[in-house]
Design goal:
By secondary structure, the chain is mostly helical. 69% of the residues lie in helices and 9% in strands. The radius of gyration is 33 Å and the shape is flat.
Length: 124
């Protein structure tokens, strides 16, 4: 019985060591993947002034005003400003399209307002 117990303990220990090594390999693999091309991750998270101007459809002077107002926080790299893409996306203004109503909808809403005024009587 001792031989079986010692054998099962060793198998459990081997399995534990195997799982530990497997997790270490997975960690190393993820670290290697992150080091493959650090420039791509930088470019997807940061843009330069001219790209920000293009995204926001504004002039260089407006970008400078945004920086002075604290709306954009530049990071200086090689004498050039770079901005976080998320920060620039937060400034993108998308105008709402006007709601187009038909004459029938306008007449219905006016009649509803008139009906409310009639209910209130002289108090409106």
């Amino acid at each position: 019985m001792d031989a079986n117990n010692s054998k099962s303990i060793t198998n459990e220990m081997l399995m534990e060591q195997f799982m530990e090594m497997k997790s270490m390999i997975a960690n190393l693999h993820s670290e290697i993947e992150s080091l493959k091309n650090p420039v791509d991750s930088f470019l997807t998270k940061w843009i330069d002034t001219f790209e920000a101007m293009r995204m926001l459809r504004v002039s260089r002077r407006t970008i400078d005003n945004y920086i002075k107002a604290g709306k954009l926080k530049p990071v200086r790299i090689n004498k050039r400003n770079h901005f976080a893409v998320t920060e620039v996306n937060g400034l993108v203004h998308v105008p709402e399209s006007p709601k187009i109503k038909s004459y029938q909808e306008d007449i219905r809403s006016m009649l509803q307002q008139v009906a409310k005024m009639d209910e209130l009587g002289e108090d409106w």
